[in-house]
Design brief:
The complex is a heterodimer of chains A (226) and B (454). Chain A is an alpha/beta fold and 226 residues long. Chain A has nine helices and ten strands. Chain B is elongated. Classes of the chains: A alpha/beta (226), B alpha+beta (454).
Chain lengths: 226, 454
């Protein structure tokens, strides 16, 4: 069964007196163990799509199913808390906390089962994305962009979720750091059996993924290429 | 990380904002506390005043004829009935009657009202638990109070101050009285005729240390007899006088001090019916307070306005500061929402931050605020006293409590209840002021603050 699926997803934005259709009856599904990328021109609605499947906004019509159950029924808040992890382009870490605390915040919020020693678990997760203990205790603003993004990934995976949703996570990073981040996502999908869905502008990064979903601005729908 | 840990982390890392909130709440808290202290102190003072003054009705018959006076005795009987029926604790006090005595009892010298003055005054009481005893102004430490039999028969027995001599400006008690002494008092007519009227001392009392010297002093001379014994003395004296002179002596006034203001109306209705030919002087504790209250009420009124303004100011300032802070923290709130944090928990975190700083500021403003209240009210009282002195508005009541004495009763001490009330009110204000903006900000759509593109 698909872990995530959209049914007739429909979304518009106000455009003067009219409403511009961004997503028009979008039907797409995602499986565990695969790395998905979403390509599309600026303003095509790829981030909007991502925000809908991440339950950061509500669709006008249609529904999103997680393990066959509508996320509206699960509850948007609960779905974000227990079922998905989100990685943003601008990291969105809490600035007055250090890396370790940022990860531990997510772990304390989720209802998913965590290890008794939460701190040790957080340090291990940070270590797995290349953040050592020394850096883990540094304030966020004393880390580089690439390090901050790795902390954001650690935070996303720390809650034992099956779906990682990433909005252009390499958008603010240099080429080498971007490669490292993509490697982490690939490992998450292929080694830890996660479903990774990533929005990107880069055809090169998209080529590294298992499935590419291209958002067509004319049809406001996806073209799937593998 | 639980909400409280996140809250304290935020406070620790945002010291300038914490300081801004702290100083603002501290300033308003000082004004708030000063208003509360002034209000509370004036209320305490009013209660103390009313407790001291009681509601008093004086039946005065200075101009009443002999026949009327006889009527009055009947009325006294009814009044005594009142005393029982209304369960008024107060003393039924007659104007004192002078008794004369030699200054020697059983070979011992005794001191009476003044050195070398053998005239002594007794106050008539109608109850064994008479007013001064009931109010714990005095305590009978030797002997006893009056029995019902003695009160009913008007027996010539008396309860005196143990330290009577000290009241006569001596450092030590030299009255030398003992329980069981029979003082050979006599009643003397205007033309020098004398009737022996021996009085037995059945009790000696100590005056409470809690009273001020000013209040203690009159009690040294206030000795007590059954009321009927005092009226009997008048009868004896009038009988002596009528033999050669038609002048009649009578109690100058009868004073009824009511235990409760609620009894006043009922009492007056009966008293007016009974004493149609008698002058009624009413000292209602409320009315008496009103005569001297002006400066206090002016301050209280100002304090009440200050309290209202501070409440509105505190609500407005905290709401605005919270809105300002949360506007800056929209992004952070968006992150918590994206992580799936419950809105309630986010609100709790922000409230913990605001309440911690706010209540600390309020707590510290209690001391300084009450001092400020003292300074403000002292200044205002000074002005009011000067104004009242010019206008001659200062009136006396039966207890002789004038404005200056009233101000002496003004106590700035902060009671635990006042502090708890202040903390409670401020807690509610802070909670209310911070909750509304919080509720608004946790309802933001996370996408709008976290994602920049379409």
């Amino acid at each position: 069964m698909n872990i995530l699926e959209t049914k007739n997803l429909y979304f518009t934005y106000p455009d003067g007196d009219q409403r511009k259709i961004i997503l028009n009856e979008v039907n797409v599904s995602f499986d565990k163990g695969k790395f998905y990328t979403i390509l599309g021109a600026s303003g095509s609605g790829k981030t909007t799509f991502l925000s809908l499947i991440a339950a950061l906004d509500k669709p006008e019509r249609g529904e999103i199913l997680f393990n066959g159950e509508a996320i509206e029924k699960i509850g948007y808040e609960k779905y974000r808390r227990d079922d998905i992890g989100i990685v943003f382009q601008s990291y969105n870490l809490i600035p007055y906390m250090n890396s370790l605390e940022n990860v531990m915040v997510a772990m304390s919020i989720t209802d998913n089962e965590m290890e008794k020693d939460m701190k040790a678990q957080a340090l291990r997760i940070l270590e797995s994305v290349g953040i050592d203990e020394n850096k883990a205790k540094r304030r966020i603003n004393r880390l580089s962009g690439g390090e901050q993004q790795r902390v954001a990934i650690a935070r996303a995976i720390s809650t034992n979720v099956d779906v990682i949703i990433a909005d252009e996570p390499t958008g603010n990073l240099d080429g080498k750091t971007s490669e490292m981040i993509i490697d982490i996502f690939k490992k998450l999908a292929h080694e830890q059996n996660k479903c990774v869905i990533m929005v990107t502008h880069s055809e090169k990064i998209a080529a590294e993924s298992d499935v590419v979903l291209k958002l067509n601005t004319d049809t406001q729908n996806f073209e799937v290429t593998s | 990380m639980k909400q409280w840990k996140r809250a304290f982390k935020y406070l620790y890392t945002h010291k300038s904002k914490v300081l801004l909130l702290f100083i603002t709440v501290f300033i308003v808290g000082n004004l708030f506390m000063s208003a509360l202290v002034i209000h509370s102190s004036s209320m305490n003072m009013e209660a103390l005043f009313k407790n001291r003054i009681k509601s008093t009705v004086i039946l005065s018959d200075k101009d009443v004829s002999i026949d009327d006076r006889l009527d009055l005795y009947d009325k006294e009987a009814v009044a005594a009935d009142y005393y029982n029926r209304l369960s008024i604790y107060e003393t039924l006090v007659s104007e004192y009657h002078p008794l004369y005595s030699s200054l020697e009892v059983d070979g011992r010298n005794i001191c009476l009202n003044k050195p070398n003055n053998s005239c002594y005054y007794f106050f008539g009481v109608a109850n064994s638990d008479f007013f001064e005893l009931h109010e714990n102004s005095i305590e009978i430490t030797e002997g006893r109070s009056f029995t019902e039999e003695e009160l009913k028969n008007g027996s010539p027995v008396a309860v005196l101050a143990k330290d009577l001599g000290r009241g006569n400006f001596f450092e030590n008690d030299i009255s030398n009285f003992q329980v069981g002494d029979i003082i050979p008092f006599s009643i003397i007519s205007y033309d020098g005729k004398k009737v022996e009227y021996p009085v037995e001392i059945i009790g000696l009392f100590d005056i409470s240390d809690k009273l001020s010297d000013e209040n203690k002093y009159p009690l040294y001379f206030k000795s007590f007899m059954p009321y009927k014994a005092v009226t009997k003395q008048y009868d004896i004296q009038n009988e002596l006088n009528t033999q050669n002179n038609p002048i009649k002596y009578s109690p100058v006034q009868l004073t009824f001090r009511l235990a409760s203001d609620n009894k006043m109306e009922e009492f007056l209705q009966r008293a007016e019916t009974l004493c149609q030919s008698t002058r009624l002087q009413i000292f209602h504790s409320d009315a008496e307070f009103k005569k001297v209250q002006r400066p206090i009420m002016a301050i209280r009124s100002l304090a009440d306005k200050q309290f209202m303004i501070c409440t509105i100011a505190l609500i407005t300032i905290i709401s605005l500061l919270v809105i300002l802070f949360l506007e800056e923290r929209k992004h952070e709130i968006g992150i918590y929402l994206a992580l799936g944090e419950r809105k309630f928990n986010i609100i709790v975190q922000v409230l913990l931050e605001i309440i911690t700083v706010g209540m600390l500021a309020i707590l510290l403003s209690i001391g300084s605020g009450s001092k400020l209240g003292e300074v403000i009210s002292n200044k205002m009282l000074e002005v009011q006293i000067q104004e009242d002195a010019k206008s001659g508005a200062n009136e006396l009541n039966p207890e002789g409590i004038d404005l200056e004495k009233l101000i002496e009763m003004y106590d700035y001490s902060i009671e635990q209840d006042t502090v708890l009330f202040m903390m409670g009110i401020c807690f509610i204000i802070i909670l209310f002021s911070a909750t509304l903006p919080c509720c608004y900000f946790v309802n933001i759509i996370p996408r709008k603050v976290l994602m920049e593109d379409l």
